[in-house]
Amino acid sequence: MALSQQLVGTSPTTVYTSSGDSATTSIFLMNDNGASRTVQVYLVPNGGTAGVTNQIIKDLAIDGADTYILQNEKIVLANGDTIQVTASATNSIYATVSYVGI
User: Fold this and answer.
1) What are the DSSP E strand ranges found in the chain?
2) Where in the sequence is the domain holding 46, given as residue range(s)?
């Protein structure tokens, strides 16, 4: 198992790029600010861009100093596919993706 970590910005921030085929085991979105922040999460095919057609989470509010964990089903990604996240404010949301190669 491996980790990918990134500070999320207000425009789509790539928090993980698949190298070969891989599967996520969990995604953590941690709000390091005292105020609530919202996030959007996108699963973007290789060569694509983040948008409503590949958005999987919209306007998820994360309370200040709280963490949201996305760990339902595994997300299987092909080579070059990305997970991208947008936050409502800079320097607040940290994304951690746990993944394995398959």
Assistant:
1) 2-7, 13-17, 22-31, 37-44, 55-62, 67-70, 76-77, 82-87, 93-101
2) 2-101
What does the pLDDT look like over 58-101, one tens digit per residue? 999 999 999 999 987 899 999 999 999 999 999 999 999 999 99
| Inter-residue contact 88 to 16 (CB < 8 Å) | no
**Predicted structure pTM score:** 0.96
With a CB cutoff of 8 Å and minimum separation 6, the contacts of 22 are 76, 77, 99, 100, 101, 102
Q: For residue 80, what is the domain's CATH number?
A: 2.60.120.260
- Total domains in the chain come to 1
Q: What is the three-class DSSP state of 22? A: strand
